[in-house]
Amino acid sequence: MNNHPVITIGRQCGSSGKIIGQKLAEELGIKCYDKELLALASKNSGFSEELFQSHDEKPTNSFLYSLVMDTHSLGFTTSGYMDMPINHKLFLAQFETIKKLAMEEPCVIVGRCADYALSEYPNLISVFISAKDEDKIQLLKERNQIDDTKAKDLMVKTDKRRSSYYNYYSSKKWGDVRSYDLCVNSSSVGVDGAVSVIKRFVEEKMSQLK
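and the corresponding structure tokens:
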């Protein structure tokens, strides 16, 4: 049985969850997978990376689009698989890639229902990053060079999309404290403070598992 930790990061839009994940990985001397996961899933499955990007953390698309895309299913012949909508196929490909990664190496994985994919993995540490709305809006304004209204709209729509995706594919509820091992408010402790808190939590959990 593998005894290395895998840390998954769920995050609100604008909460610095990706940056926290990257800094945590640097501190621990391991890799952080975010968009990189799409390239890996593409390589493992044969589906194009562009297809993964177009469906990335999005809830189910229209039936018509799924039907059209299924006519380009790369020659798979299993009837159950053939009948499956393309978004389900892509989710399964990501699901398998996440599980493969967890078996091979310690890592940090940002988003993409990774905590659900690894629910049976004993050394999983699932984290959710939140922040105050005003701080998230300010960060999004600076990052995207947009005004308050557009930043708030981006925040709300992105979180709605991530929530719908997570709630659709997993048996848990996005952002609910009961869905994670640890929830951290980056507005309260800052990016470096969040990294420090998570790192300490990882060390404590791993020591309990020994």
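(Above: one complete record from the training split.) The radius of gyration is 18 Å.
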